[in-house]
From TrEMBL:
It comes from the Bacteria. SUPFAM superfamilies: Winged helix' DNA-binding domain (SSF46785). It comes from Flavobacterium panici. This is Helix-turn-helix transcriptional regulator. The keyword Transcription applies. PROSITE patterns: HTH_HXLR.
Amino acid sequence: MEAEVKTAVRTFKKEDKDCKPQECMAALLPVRDALEVLSGRWKLPILIALSDRPKRFKEISKDINGITDKMLSKELKDLEINKLVTRTVYDTFPPTVEYSRTQHSQSLGDVIMALKDWGTLHRKEIIGK
């Protein structure tokens, strides 16, 4: 997988005429897949809110300013489907539900930091801050 990403990046950076559009697009499929999984306003903030420890629904809701309960529920389900978050139900009364990041989602750490760094550069370029 890592080799495929490096190939895609090399192909994307190519500026010679050997890179045919179909080949370049095929090499970038993993990037498109990643963007689909992480797209939207709330997925990364949810993953960041869960980075230090498992949390209950209301704790996540309080950590993320502006998200509605309906949207949080939808996004948690999407993250669970993509194996980035696990939902654990404890046999208590009333039932306790906790959400936590999976081992698979831990691999996003470098990606999130790279996005932060690029976003900082982009802000400086666009608005000078």
